[in-house]
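Researcher: Re-running this chain for the archive, since the previous output was lost when a drive failed. Same request as before.
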Amino acid sequence: MDIVLTYRGRAVTAADVAFIQDLIARHPHASRWTLSKELCRAWGWVQANGALRDMVCRGLLLALHRGGHVELPPVRRVTPNPLARRQRPTAVEVDQTPIVTTLAALGPLTIHQVRRTPEERVVNALLAAHHYLGYTQPVGEHLKLLVLAGERPVACLAFSSAPRHLGPRDRFIGWSAPARRRNLHLVAYNTRFLILPWVKVPHLASHILGLTARILSAQWQQMYGHPVVFLETFVDPERFRGTCYRAANWVVLGQTTGRGKDDLTHRANRSRKDVLGYPLARDFRARLSEVA
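Model: Regenerated structure tokens:
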């Protein structure tokens, strides 16, 4: 099989290139946007929720165009990229009266999935104001959770698509490279966890992690049309011990290399992080290792 290039896990053959060239020829007045959608439909290239993988397909077409394999029509308009012009989330007013109590006295908690709701801006603002890493707009699939005690926010969490390569996780799961490419969407990465600074409740963080583990897969299914079966996160050992994760039965998988995802030097250029994981299903290894 004559593979021209591999893009986001898909091997593109010479026959695929010929098909795309014919598609472009049959739609001489189509825009790049239209061509990518037509190609997605022709290839059945869809997300788990049935939506076309349009953005990924456009990236593939652009890679083929830059490589001289196909000739795309001229760009008709440039869509503003909100990620390139990020604005700090607008501050929100919340009750900052100290909450100093026990977990039992705090009462029942409710966890709201706020992605694509008016409450999303509350989570964004709280992370920006009070998390040591601030707020960064996630890319790809992601959910945001707001934790309330009564009507008062006490914590928030963010989960996103998992990084493609993570040695400690990959060795723990034991999946092959094809299985990882096929099933990575079943892993969610906990990017932020914030207990609001005026909330002082022993064992609250591990309790919230336990509650979140029970609902996250169903929330992901509702939003994106597929579950998640494994959670992971990074902990900076220079700042934290990850005590709440360990208390919630997360497993220490190892450490990062400290090189980052864009490393070209094969030398550490940032602090090493502890990698922790939490299975959401007993058969997580079997499900993550499926290749067909």
